[in-house]
Write a structure and sequence with these properties.
single chain, 374 residues, alpha/beta, Aspartate Aminotransferase, domain 1, Aspartate Aminotransferase, domain 2, seven-stranded mixed β-sheet, four-stranded antiparallel β-sheet, 11 helices, globular
């Protein structure tokens, strides 16, 4: 199998990740629930994972990192914990449904930053939209459809000047491109993509003071006689038993990135991405999507072939060439409507530093053969 579906999950991970999960299963107790050695081991490694993530994003307080089951849970908890029906929120048409659906459910007023023909978010409308009564900006840092990366620093500068809270979805970018704590107020991430962690891991990074409502409640192992869940961080987000097994695996994925250097990882991924893009961009019957002139982008190339649906192409790639990729609308309906691919979606190849140049050449050859067959 040639695995080009890394934006869905990085299936090929550093060996230390699986080893850590196996070790945790045999050695970790329920974190925060007692004082014996098995619990102490779990507590220690969960804190060490907070520290590794803080280091990766350049933050100095590990307790500002809370763990959840996924970016979807993170975004739902942040949006429902902060945003009410009386609020005005700015987002973008490039968003994943993990942002859009919680916003719709909140009943808030939504204004959208538009995109150009390549799917790049148009920042020139931000000055107009990011005005009172807007309280929040929530946007993706990197599109899982086009691979375009948002200029988060520019948006955050406007937000800081106007007292607007910025929430950044870093599901696709964390671990793949450099991210700074100075890019937003709140970050929502997943563990199983660029961070090389296990599925079922994710989190929230919050800096500064924010008045979150309680959106998930139950046992936390402490203050059991209190009627209401603690609103302290990270406890407000960490209700129930933490996935200590997965979190320890996530730690090893993050440590791999910190050791290798995110710039080096990104450089390799983009070398492979450019090689694939250059190999298919001039083919007859092939249309690519995204801005490949940008200085920084994700290791994603999305395309269509002639009038075939993306599902037909992806099925052929798998059955005839053993190439694993993603077809469809990638849970980003507004962007597909904008790009005119709502009816058939796109074929998405997404690369990892564990892919090889030989795999890229095989991928190019497979796309060429399908296109020539048209």
């Amino acid at each position: 199998m040639i695995y080009f579906d890394n934006s869905a999950t990085t299936m090929i991970k550093p060996p230390s990740v699986a080893a850590a999960v196996a070790h945790a299963i045999d050695n970790f107790g329920n974190a925060g629930r007692s004082f014996h050695d098995a619990v102490t081991r779990a507590n220690r490694e969960i804190f060490n994972t907070r520290t590794a993530i803080s280091k990766l994003i350049g933050h100095d307080n590990p307790l500002d990192v809370a763990f959840t089951s996924s970016a979807t849970e993170s975004l739902n908890m942040v949006i429902s914990g902060l945003i009410s029906s009386s609020d005005t929120v700015v987002t973008t048409i490039a968003e994943h449904n993990s942002v859009l659906r919680p916003l719709y459910l909140s009943g808030c007023k939504i204004n959208y930053l538009e995109c150009d023909d390549t799917g790049q978010i148009q920042l020139n409308s931000a000055e107009k939209l990011l005005t009172l009564p807007t309280k929040y900006l929530i946007c993706t840092h990197g599109s899982n459809v086009t691979g375009n990366v948002t200029n988060a620093a520019a948006l955050y500068k406007i937000c800081r000047e106007r007292g607007i809270t910025m929430i950044l979805d870093i599901s696709q970018t964390f671990g793949s491109v450099p991210i700074s704590i100075d890019m937003a107020d709140i970050f929502c991430f997943t563990g199983h993509k660029g961070l090389f962690g296990p599925m079922g891991t994710g989190g929230i990074i919050v800096k500064g003071k924010h008045d979150f409502k309680i959106t998930k409640t139950g046992g936390s192992g402490v203050n059991s006689f209190d009627e209401l869940q603690s609103t302290d961080r990270p406890e407000i987000f960490e209700v129930g038993t933490l996935n200590a097994h997965g979190i320890y695996g996530l730690q090893k994925g993050v440590e791999f990135i910190n050791e290798q250097g995110i710039e080096q990882i990104h450089a390799k991924e983009m070398c492979l991405t450019r090689m694939f893009y250059d190999g298919i961009k001039g083919l007859n019957n092939v249309q690519t999507y995204g801005d490949f002139s940008a200085e920084i982008r994700l290791p994603i190339v999305s395309f269509n072939i002639a009038e075939l649906s993306s599902s037909e192409v992806a099925e052929c790639l798998w059955t005839e060439y053993a190439v694993a990729c993603r077809a469809g609308t990638h849970c980003a309906p507004l962007l597909h409507k904008h790009l005119g691919t709502y009816d058939r979606g796109m074929v998405r190849f997404s690369f990892s530093c564990f892919n090889t140049e030989d795999e890229i050449q095989q991928g190019i050859a497979a796309v060429r053969k399908i296109a020539e067959g048209m």
